Amino acid sequence: MKRKFPAYQNRCGWNSLLDAQTVATTLKEKHESDLVIVGAGYTGVAAARRYAELLPTANITLLDASRIGEGNPGRNSGFLLEVALANDVDTANMDRLRRCNALLGQTMQQLAKDAASAPRDCQLLRAGTYRAAAGEIGRAALRKYRAFLETAGLPVETLSREQLQERIGTRFYGSGLYSPHCYLVQPAALIRSLVEKLPTTVSVFEESPAIKIEAVGNGWRVTTPQGHVTAPTVFLANNAFCKYLGVGASRITAMYTYAALTAPLPDTDLANCGKDPQWGLLPAHRLGSTLRKTLDGRLLVRSLYGYERESNNELIAKRLRAALLRRYPALTDVAFESVWSGATGFTYNGAPLWGQVRRGLFVSAGCNGGGVVKGSLFGRLLAEHALEMETPDMAALFGNASWMPPEPLRALGFSIIAGIERHRARDEV
Asked: One Pfam family name from the record (predicted)?
């Protein structure tokens, strides 16, 4: 049986760079609360914060399976996109996309304010984002994405191989795009800071995975390995792992991706990494490689996907190193300081699983790889929705997660599609 919560082979590289954490407070014995939130990621934290703002007397319990910063919210690549990721140029949808972008932009501005007043440096910078292609499949995707941005009236800059080399230091890509609508951040620093800034009415329990949820009386009981907590209202904000608690099994699946981070590079090597002090690059094809240069002179590479389970990190490290050297062949002496994986919730149509499931039970899951800004927005709106406030029509704006076939057909379908897409994306890995 698959685990009901993530447990990773390696520490999160981002979190290992931060100050040491105190001993975790775990949920033990019996507790009662007004609201239980499963998952202390961006969605769960935003939901806790908003609920506490609207109902200051509420006693809120926030559960996480790992340490704050070690879980999935600290394991991403640190891209905070201000605009919806839409690759289709459908003019009939432009009004909807503009409304989505307005909500995301407002959420990003709140995150920027939070980072500015954080107890640690979150290294937040509006650096924009590059998208680049090495092969024809990637170039076709860039043309489509550029057309979308232009139709949406969003600024975009087209870059040649030589311009990319000047900015990010590699000739690997033949063409690229630059869009300013993106912040870069140290994700573990951000999530730890957001949790630390929660009001005192929110009790945070780490290393306390929810392993069972059941209806009791007029509410719910959430069980952890060492205790349980009862409440009239429960939010599931644990992404793909909500399905192991009985919600969304036919709508969501867990995908594992992998990242590696170098130590700070010496000046001689940094000279080969472009003039931008910090930059981030997303692949033109979704199965390509993501790259970042951090403010302290490190390189990050993220690539490869696994279905529902984590692969051997030692073998993954070799493939990530090969991807890095294809782009920066002069960095043969540069080693990785950290290699890690992270799970994200994917839905077939890219839409979220969001809203009320049963009386007192709500869910927000399916970030589809864009969970920092979008997850923060969805969490805030979920709290408002649960308190019967007027909220935007989420289904009309962001859609509803569509049905996926059961296992083993789902795994077989993924294997076939992934094989085809890996072949198509071979130039971009």
From this structure: DAO
* Pair (27, 164) in one structural domain: no
Contacts of 255 (CB under 8 A, 6+ apart): 240, 305, 306, 307, 308, 343, 344, 345, 346
1 band by pLDDT with thresholds 50, 70 and 90: very low
AA identity, residue 185: V
pTM beyond 0.90: the answer is yes
Q: Helices (DSSP H) in 169-275: which residue ranges?
A: 187-196, 267-270
Q: How confident is the model over 317-365, as pLDDT tens digits?
A: 999 999 999 999 999 999 999 999 999 999 999 999 999 999 999 999 9
Residues 398 and 279 in one domain: no
Distances (CA, A) of 239 to 111, 224, 363, 365: 20, 17, 9, 4
C-alpha 357/C-alpha 404 separation (Å) is 18
C-alpha torsion sign, points 242, 239, 283, 311: negative
Q: Model confidence over 141-153: pLDDT tens digits?
A: 999 999 888 888 8
Structure tokens at 81: 């996109």
Is residue 405 reached through a cis peptide bond, with omega within 30 degrees of 0 on the bond before it? no
323 and 410 part of one domain: no
Beta strands of 69-149 (E only): which ranges? 79-81, 129-133
Q: What are the backbone dihedrals phi and psi of residue 11, each rounded to the nearest 5 degrees, phi first?
A: -65, 155
* Backbone angles phi and psi of 69, in degrees to 5: 100, -25
Residue type, 45: V
| Interaxial angle between packed helices 94-116 and 373-386, expressed in degrees from 0 to 180 and rounded to the nearest 10 | 100
Number of separate domains in the chain: 2
Same domain for 213 and 71: yes
HEC sequence for 326-356: HHCCCCCCCCEEEEEEEEEEECCCCCCEEEE
Domain that holds residue 312: 125-184+254-345
Query: Under 8 Å CB-to-CB from 388, ≥6 apart: which residues?
Result: none
Q: What are the tokens at 307?
A: 């279905």
In this structure, are 352 and 413 located in the same domain? yes
Amino acid at 363: V
